[in-house]
Amino acid sequence: QLVRTQLAALFRLAREQDVRILVPMVTLEEDIREIRVLFDATLETFPGAKRPPFGAMIETPAAALGVATIARHVDFLSVGTNDLAQYTLAAGRDDPAVSHYYDDTHAAVLRLLAIAITDAPGVPIALCGELAGREETMPQLLRLGFRSLSMAPGLIPGAKELIRGVRLGERRTKPAVAHDQGQ
Fold it and tell me: Residue-wise pLDDT tens for the chain (183 aa)?
């Protein structure tokens, strides 16, 4: 019932504002399918309502590995690199006992990012988290295929400048977008 109430509030807001609905912590296809059924059923109770884009947050190894099935139910995807790294390496950044294991550029994390970007062709996918806002990792993320990087507003000017200079092979990258984490 809580999800229906939240969706109804978002559909009312969508009458006046551009709204995108992003479901956090999706792990399995069943998770997003369940919410999608509620999304569609609740939307039907708002005749003539504008249908907001519906997306899933990929934050676990299972979600990254199963992104192809999750993508069937959404209009867009976002990958949360902070949680993805934490769950992949079983190491939280804020836990002193294991924080030395946390590395969002670890090969296992980068492999999951590559899977996420290649296994959901045609579905817009944004990269969120600290990794997306670091200048030293942006070229690698662009080479993996990410074209939307979410970061703190203060990092955007430097990111734009860096992105303009990144070349992939003999051609420039497709336009990349750096946008405020609040969007």
Answer: 899 999 999 999 999 899 999 999 999 999 999 999 999 999 999 988 889 999 999 999 999 999 999 999 999 999 999 999 999 999 988 888 988 899 999 999 999 999 999 999 999 999 999 999 999 999 999 999 999 999 999 999 999 998 888 876 543 344 555 566 655
Give the span between the Cα atoms of 51 and 35, in whole angstroms.
Answer: 15
Q: Delineate the domains of the chain, giving CATH numbers in brackets.
A: 2-128 (3.20.20.60)
Q: How many angstroms separate the Cα of 129 from the Cα of each of 150, 157, 181?
A: 7, 17, 8
Global confidence as pTM: 0.87
